[in-house]
Amino acid sequence: MRVAGWRVGSKYGCCARRQRERVINQGEQRENADGQFHQCGEGFVSLAPRSALFAGLIAASLVVFWQPLSLLIQSAWQHDEYTHILLVLPITVILIFLEGTNPAAVPRYAPAIGLALLGLAAGITEAGRSDKLALGGGGVLSLSILALVLVWMACVLFTYGTQVFRSLLFPLLLLFMIVPVPVSLLDRAILFLQQGSTEATFLLFKLGGVPVLKQGFVLSMPSLNIEVAKQCSGIRSSMMLLVTGLVLSHLFLRSLWAQVVFVFFIVPMAVIKNAVRIFTLSMLAMHVDPGFLEGRLHRDGGIVFFILGLTAMLGVLLLLQKVERRSPGVADTPSEGMKPPQGAQVSIP
After folding, report:
1. In this structure, how many other beta carbons lie within 10 angstroms of the beta carbon of residue 287?
2. Lowest-pLDDT choice from 26-30, 152-156, 187-191, 325-329
3. SS3 of 214, please?
4. Where are the chain's structural domains?
5. Which residues contact 166 (CB under 8 A, 6 or more apart)?
6. Is there a contact between 253 and 324 (Cβ–Cβ < 8 Å)?
7. Is 23 helix (H, G, I), strand (E, B) or coil?
8. What is the pLDDT of residue 341?
9. How confident is the model at residue 337, as a pLDDT?
10. Which of 136, 198, 234, 262 ranks highest by number of CB atoms within 10 Å?
């Protein structure tokens, strides 16, 4: 009876242990599904306190930098050369949520690195306020937003550590695109686009058999004179193409050389796209109606030529993907941000 009793007890003991293990596993699965725990070699580490701390630090940074941030949004809304900033912020947030699923990135506090980066941001902020620096033309705003980006990076490092920071490196670096370019550098970029657009448009007229003379930024034809002014440089659509190209290269190209080639292709594509726009409007004005130079296509038709430029970029992207697939060892190596999630999700609110 003792043996039988032992056997019966052992049987029910095994069942009880299995039941307890099943309950524990279900609880762990629920915790992982809720995104509140991350499984690592040291067990389950709660992410809820980190997320609360991170949210608090981000909220504090918004309060401290509210004035330059509001000026940034106002500039992006009112000036064509800064419109891309309105695109960068939502794209960055989306990429952070999409790419914050790397199971190998174990969140750990890194206060030393975070505080060092925070000190750098404080130094940049103080330099922007110093009277010793001649920062005219929006230079102070540029330094303030640069400091804000560094503060956000410091928040990620402080609360989630270096592994999570590396897994989110691209969207975090993309935040530097919201730093407004100082006017002195912006004028040089606009001048470059003006010169490139003028030369490309002049070449299109020559290829089209249209008699044309070029003097500076002025193109003279028998029945029309046009000037490629600053407003016609295409700086807004060029910045939009740059942001879009950076994101596309990160998501769909796997080798560094292909990403570099694709990004370098953006600049000539922006110039060619703008030249096609100027050429099309000029031909319509000469052969159909002069009102095209003042009409809706001139004012609001930039999106049409932007789509044409984007289509050409997608064609180059597909070509580079084909070259990558033929390159040994590239097709089977997905980019870090696009690896499929395996295990628990590490999300940053």
Report:
1. 9
2. 26-30
3. strand
4. 1-32, 45-174, 187-337
5. 105
6. yes
7. helix
8. 41
9. 43
10. 234
- Return the structure tokens found at 216: 């500076």
Mean pLDDT of the chain: 78
User: Position 256: which residue type?
Assistant: L
- Check: CB of residue 260 under 8 Å from CB of residue 246: no
Q: Which two tokens stand for residue 328?
A: 């040994």
Residues 6+ apart with CB under 8 A from 157: 110, 113, 114, 117, 165
Residue 226: both structure tokens together: 């046009």
Rounded-to-integer distance, Cα 339 and Cα 254, Å:
11
User: What is the rounded distance in angstroms from the CA atom of residue 237 to the CA atom of residue 239?
Assistant: 5
Tokens of 41: 């070699």
As a whole number of angstroms, the distance between CA 65 and CA 70 comes to: 9
Residue type, 328: P
- Residue entry with tokens 């890194």: 110
Q: Return the biggest CA–CA distance within the chain.
A: 116
For 161-217, how does the pLDDT look when each residue is reduced to its tens digit (9 = 90+)?
Answer: 999 999 999 999 999 999 998 888 888 999 999 999 999 999 999 998 888 899 888
Structure tokens at 262: 């694709």
- List the structure tokens of 165: 């920071």
Report yes or no: 226 and 282 within 8 Å, Cβ to Cβ: yes
Confidence of residue 233 (pLDDT cuts 50, 70, 90): confident
What pLDDT is stored for residue 331 in this prediction?
47
- As a whole number of angstroms, the distance between CA 314 and CA 307 comes to 10
Q: Is the dihedral of CA 165, 168, 173, 175 positive or negative?
A: negative
Helix axes 85-99, 66-78, angle to 10 degrees: 120
Distant-in-sequence, close-in-space partners of 125: CB < 8 Å, separation ≥ 6: 143, 144, 147
pTM: 0.75
Write out pLDDT tens, residues 109-140: 888 999 999 999 999 988 877 644 444 456 78
As a whole number of angstroms, the distance between CA 278 and CA 196 comes to 12
